[in-house]
Predict the structure.
Amino acid sequence: MKPIAVVILNWNGEQMLREYLPSVVRHTPIEIADIIVADNGSTDSSLDILKSDFPMVKVIAFTENYGFAEGYNRAVADLEPNYGYVVLLNSDVKVVDDWLTPLYEFMESHPETGVVQPKILSLSEPSRFEYAGACGGFLDRQGYPFCRGRIFDTVEYDSGQYDVPLKIFWASGAAFMVRSNLYVKAGGLDKKFFAHMEEIDLCWRINRLGKEVWAVPSAKVYHLGGGSLPAESPRKTYLNFRNNLLMLHKNLPKSVGRTLLIRRRLLDTLAWARYIIKGDIENARAILKAHNDFRHMRTEYTQHPKENLLNGDINIVFDYYVRARKKFSELQN
């Protein structure tokens, strides 16, 4: 049995399969990995295309659409007994060279590591990092996510400045490898999030289990990104604000979380005011809705950890907007 399952979740994505799956087939070493498409009850020609054009790809065919998180959870649960590692790979990712072996070799030689991600570059502008993950993710002391290669809306060019493997806090859901039994033990992706930050929440829980998360830049992929929701979409704003609050609430000790969430209400009010000043009423409303829905949803999470993993000196809002430090390499200066 091969050690790795590369899992691509698909729902009515026949065009994505035609465009991006060939690179995965071409550049994935078949001696160590099986490529598996988990189909979420597609009603287009996805299954026919897989059968006729990609007979070497295995298929898990669900009878209904379970969504992103639950679709992956069900697929990994099916595969976990037979594969030591699973790779969650978005359907809009193009891979090159032998992108997989560096991730596998790192995991094999670092048993304390539970998750690794490759360097993720923009498919539309290959010289830049891709927004969703870049070269590894972090959280600042307020719980705001940022990346090695991307802080808020500033995305850096890749000049090899982050080519050293580094322990990170979270790996991008666009492409990461995880020990399959650890994924199941941690509870998988939280389906209540629907979309956005569900991978950060999972990595936080994996950190809490005592396993590390690393970026391995010698592995490289290209992500289209932004296909489902544009950057300034009010729906995306809503999900990002709501899910960030949920993630902090469920992963912090109760007393720490209570204090931090008070500060976050103040900071999010500033973000709301910024949208109002710009005349962007829809995104301002999205922030208000996010906070309102969070107040209702937080009652579904009653278990809180004792340890606080959100320790650090970086205040990314202050560094970015006041000190004008736009690059990851500038944050420690």
Q: What stands out?
A: The chain is about 40% helix and 20% strand.
